[in-house]
Amino acid sequence: MFSDTAPAPGVPDKNILKRPGLRSAPATVETETPVGAPQAAAPLSPPKPSGRDAALEAKKKQAEEAELAKQKAEAEKMAKARAENCDRARRAKATLDSGVRVATTNAKGEREIMDDQARAAETQRLSEIIRTDCGPAPQAQTQAQ
Fold first, then answer.
1. Which residues share a beta bridge with 111?
2. CA torsion sign, 10 to 13 to 14 to 17?
3. What pTM was estimated for this model as a whole?
């Protein structure tokens, strides 16, 4: 008989399969064996784990492959952005170096002609962008990717 309540006080311990609240294996019930009867074979032990779980290894390998694909896609995205920045900076620097008058728009939306000081500052900024984005990718970025 199975119940959620404790057994009555008069029930012997050998008749109680499992006590409430305990998480251990059920108590073994002692059975009497005839003196002349041979002992029953020992119960089969569960198969020993080999230390490897094929499904877990497959999932782990799949996750690693997905991570590598993600990193590769991110690296390609960064390389494309660097190439685009390099191209824009080179074209802008070529325009500034040509000597053509360049107009910019200020915060009020008014058009202003770039003076020599602003032209020099912009040329310096574009040269820095060309230096960083037009060469090979820095090692710190490629290792972090």
1. 105
2. positive
3. 0.48
Mean pLDDT in residue range 88-96 = 92
pLDDT digits (tens, 9 = 90+) for 20-72: 665 555 555 555 555 555 555 555 555 555 667 888 888 999 999 999 999 99
Q: How far apart are CA 139 and CA 145, in angstroms?
A: 10
SS3 content of the chain, % helix, strand, coil (to 5): 50, 5, 45
Stretch (H or E) spanning 104:
strand 103-105
- 134 exposed, middle or buried (CB, 10 Å; 0-12, 13-18, 19+)? middle
Would you mind telling me the total number of residues written for the chain in this entry?
145
Residue from 71, 56, 81, 79 nearest 138 by CA: 79
From 27-36, 113-122, 131-140, the region with the lowest mean pLDDT: 27-36
Q: Which residues contact residue 138 at a Cβ distance below 8 angstroms, ignoring those fewer than 6 apart?
A: 132
* CB distance 73 to 140 below 8 Å: no
Q: Which of 45, 130, 37 is nearest to 85 (CA)?
A: 130
